[in-house]
Design goal:
single chain; alpha+beta; Phosphorylase Kinase, domain 1; Transferase(Phosphotransferase), domain 1; 13 helices; 45% helix
Length: 403
Amino acid sequence: MIAGVVLVILVCVAIVGVVASILVIIKIGTWYKKWRSTLRRTNVLKVEFQKFAASDFLIYDLAAIRKATDNFSDENKLGRGGFGQVFKGTLPDGQEIAVKRLSTGSTQGATEFRTEVELLVRLRHNNLVQLLGCCISKDERILCYEYQHNGSLDKILFGTDNIKCKDFEWSRRFRIIKGICRGLLYLHEESPLKIVHRDLKASNILLDRDMNPKIADFGLARLFDRDQTHTVTAHFAGTFGYIAPEYSIRGTFSAKSDTFSFGILLLEIVLGRKNSSFPGSEYMSGLINHVWKNWSEGNVVELKDPTLDQECIEEVKKCIHISLLCLQENPSNRPNMETVANMLNSTSIASLPPLPSPRFIWGADVPAFVDDENVVANLSREYSVVGVESAVDSFLSSFKRRP
């Protein structure tokens, strides 16, 4: 009897041992397969990016990046985005750099990493952030940029810790507006490539030591053929409040989608307020409703940032007028960035094209929405978009993960 019990126990122990051994072998095999895959992807990227290596684009060693950032210390952390974390670094020669470190295991970030390198190494403009190089090592994907001493526009424009920048007068804002416009014009028309940014917003505008704007974060950018007017995607990307209506509803985007985002950004700079601070802007732009209402009632003074002097009111009017032209529902009616640049350089508002009826301004006569059902109902009634319900459902679900 005892011998039988002992035998059963031994058999159970043997079975458990065999199962455990199999599980360990499977675990090791899975780890090895993942390691080989990561190594293969790393080697492929290294070979791909090595062709870009030159005096103005470097392949950095991971040890050098760790030393420059004090091993990615919290003291050197500049911020965090969808891609990963950004750190300030100082190279041995004293050069300051911004180090963007891809979140480990981020598939979306890996795609953005490749896109940003392949685009930015071919682009050079005073109003685009300059990519200095990259680092690829095992699971690490790192981008190194020129360091911008005044950080991002949103921190200065909207304030940090509820403390707003007091020295942000109109002349400086207007210069930033023109610089952003020049950067977009370069991307759309003047660069070796035709590029649509797709994520233009205040946090993606960096400011150098002299407060010159630099468009940053090209992870979502798309390359266009010179004669290509638009394209369609089933994968939505971007940030609430800045997205053009044709993109949010039908997945269609073009250079005119960037024009729409520029219109929102222009209003934020004039008003000194985030578009998300206006009721209804989670799904539709309450900012546009607010601006159009006050504009049509002649309350332009009420629109400008109260910290601005009264002397700038004419240029403020001009900028609001231009922004409303950029925010028209039909993308073909929006000006391109060359036209916007010319309008910004015009001497008076009288020389600008007339504004359209409010119904052609996206959101100008649309009430604030409070839930998803109202979004679909109002879109269906006001804009008669075919299949809008499924499109909006897809749109809303796609953006749950984005800030």
